[in-house]
Amino acid sequence: MFVHLSAFYSYRSLPFCRFFLQIEEEEGGDSFDIHISVSDPEKVGDGMNAYMAYKVTTKTSVALFRQRDFSVKRRFSDFLGLHSKLASKYLHIGYIVPPAPEKSIVGMTKVKVGKEDQSSNEFVERRRSALERYDEGQATAMLSSYKHLKLKLILLPRAVNTQALSSAGILRMVNKAAEAVNKMTIKMNESDAWFEEKQQHFENLDAQLRKLHASVECLVCHRKELSVNTAQFAKSAAMLGNSEDHTALSRALSQLAEVEEKIDQLHQDQANADFYLFSELLGDYVRLISAVKGVFDQRMKTWQKWQDSQMLLQKKREAEAKLQFTNKPDKLQQTKDEIKELEGRVQQGERDFEQISKTIRKEVSRFEKDRVKDFKMSIVKYLESLVQTQQQLIKYWEAFLPEAKAIS
Amino acid sequence: MLPEKLRSVSVDLNNDASLLIDIPDALCERDKVKFTVHTKTTLSSFQKPEFSVPRQHEDFIWLHDTLVETEDYAGLIIPPAPPKPDFESPREKMHKLGEGEATMTKEEYTKMKQELEAEYLAVFKKTVQVHEVFLQRLSSHPVLSKDRNFQIFLEYDQDLSVRRKNAKEMFGGFFKNMVKSADEVLIAGVKEVDDFFEQEKTFLLDYFSKIKEATAKAEKMTRSHKNIADDYIRLSATLNSLSAEESTNYYIIKFCLKLFQNFLRVCLKKVEGRVASDEELKLTELLRYYMRDIQAAKDLLYRRARALADYENSNKALDKARLKGKDVSQAEEHQKRCLQKFDTLSESGKKELTNFKARRVVAFRKNLVEMAELEVKHAKNNMTLLQGCIELLSGN
């Protein structure tokens, strides 16, 4: 079954889109494609109640959607809302839900208060591209006003399983278990070497990617510095050229100043490429790996839950045995009922654990396959940006050369 | 003529075969750099036709200062003294490297160490060049090359430190007065009779402040380039450990990363580093050198201004003497001497300043041309490597 996916306007591919389409795959869907872009940030409202609205445009042939081509306006918190919905539905059964784009209060406040300066424009641009990168599949779900309905429609095939798990009672118990047990103290009898190995592997990858990300952020910073310094030098060279009394040399110095000014712009553009193509890529991967680790954690919690149910069952059985010797028929019956329920729960716990283990295996191998291709494409794009910079440099300096030679 | 010895800041030096000087060798011991000054000459004033002596930076400074002090050279632009060798930056890095040794992998450590050694070498080359140029400026000057102290510097095979100490005692305060940076107020305040000097004065004062500014900004720019080269080093080291992650499922990522890392290591880091050092040599060093040279030219103007002031004072003294009717002949003598001094200074000053301009223009041309050519070369290198990398990655 062929799934064709193309990204338009986004620098990287679509983590979420594949997520949804994979579900379709299993239901025997046909080939389709979907293009999503996030654009036209627009400030709505005033003061502290203001927010940025983004236009989300979709072009798709997926049968689920009524139209082929449509766009809506959504704000940042809409994206977060979608993420939390999906996370609550999917995370604890083992699906890797890509993390939400980061919320930055400072950045947003600046925009609200209307500071139309460089950094807030940058912030809006960062957010726009983050939303686009993150969210193409999620945007799908939000596109109709029937948010929840759409979600349910898409999630329908899985409804049975999710239903059971998201019932309030179990959810509360999971949360309690999560609170009670620090992941460090969950001593799980890992019968499956695959999980142990993968977990270790992701830990290492996480550490390395973070380091890499930090190095690239440093590079971006320095490149921006270089751009500023080049601009300043250009100005001083121009002034020197003005002060020079030898005509040809004066001309050459002024030309030098112009070249350096152009190069400053080049550095700025390169810094942006460094950032958007490389740094953000790594940042996304770091967050993605955290999501993967989260999924492994969920598995442990599921296991813990199962174990807890088993222990409870054990205790109830012991209680039942004791009650046999006392004359409390109601109590005995109640205990028998509780035991029945707990047996059911234990069985369910075991099933859940096996299910989540299975899902994680699939998710991880899918992740590994897709991420790799993804990563390669992004590196190529980044390298291409570097090539462009070099080409421009050659052009500028070759234009300057005759000017320098003309000094006599 | 030794074309490979032509350095960035001055041209047409060392092409007079009667006195050829170079620094073929230098040793770095802790804080001290020992230069080997090698001379080849056909002049009879020297004892041997070819010889070498070891010299320290302080010896160069001594030579410079004695030249400045010499009255006879008041009308000349004394070549600026070479700056003290500055190993601060690589030394700091070495320190950091030592501290971070525990946290780095062995490969990272060796790599950084190599880079550090390269940087040490670059600083070293720079300081040798600057000292060499100083000597070559002297040897190519018609008057200064004949200076007795210069000969001693080149020839005397004993330690010069004794002479250095004597010199300091002799000149003391007077030294400070003369060598202190040109008092711009004095220069500006003097009523100029000569158009040429008037123009030169205005030009030099303005140009000096502009070139000082440009030098500072160029230094910042070069430092940024160096920072980026260092970032590439760090990136490539991290990518290296990342690609060492064994997981067969990630073999494509591993491949990408390995390639990317190699590219960074071979191309960007080296080339970027070279761009930074070439830029520094051709541009920043050029500006720095001429800033100092212009300072020396300003010093000449200062000396001339002082001579003019002295002459004007002597005139006043003569008038007073005539009025009082006492020591008139003495005052006349003094006044004549002052006038003579002033005239000599003006004459040689004019020659020096005209030569200076020509020299400056030629040096700028040479360096700007070379810098542009190098930039193009590096960018083309970068591009070829990058494109090769992209092809490999896309092909897979």
Automatic annotation (TrEMBL), chain A:
SUPFAM superfamilies from the UniProt entry: PX domain
Record flagged with keyword Cytoplasm: no
Localization annotation: Cell projection, Lamellipodium; Early endosome membrane
InterPro entries in UniProt: AH/BAR_dom_sf (IPR027267), PX_dom (IPR001683), PX_dom_sf (IPR036871), Vps5_C (IPR015404)
Coiled coil stretches, renumbered: 332-359
Main subcellular localisation: other
Domain PX as annotated: residue spans: 32-162
GO molecular function: phosphatidylinositol binding
Annotated membrane topology: Peripheral membrane protein
The entry's keywords: Acetylation, Cell projection, Coiled coil, Endosome, Membrane, Phosphoprotein, Protein transport, Transport
A Gene Ontology term for the protein's cellular component: lamellipodium
GO biological process, alphabetically ordered: early endosome to Golgi transport; protein transport
Record carries keyword Coiled coil: yes
Pfam families: PX, Vps5
Role this protein plays: Involved in several stages of intracellular trafficking. Interacts with membranes containing phosphatidylinositol 3-phosphate (PtdIns(3P)) or phosphatidylinositol 3,5-bisphosphate (PtdIns(3,5)P2). Acts in part as component of the retromer membrane-deforming SNX-BAR subcomplex. The SNX-BAR retromer mediates retrograde transport of cargo proteins from endosomes to the trans-Golgi network (TGN) and is involved in endosome-to-plasma membrane transport for cargo protein recycling.
PANTHER family (UniProt xref): SORTING NEXIN, SORTING NEXIN-2
Family affiliation: Belongs to the sorting nexin family.
Name under which the protein is recorded: Sorting nexin-2
Automatic annotation (TrEMBL), chain B:
GO CC aspect terms: cytosol; endosome
Chain ranges of the PX domain: 1-160
A Pfam short name: PX
Gene Ontology molecular function terms on file: dynactin binding; phosphatidylinositol binding
GO biological process, one term: pinocytosis
Keywords: Protein transport, Transport
Top-level taxon of origin: Eukaryota
Function: Involved in several stages of intracellular trafficking.
Record family assignment: Belongs to the sorting nexin family.
Protein name per Swiss-Prot or TrEMBL: Sorting nexin
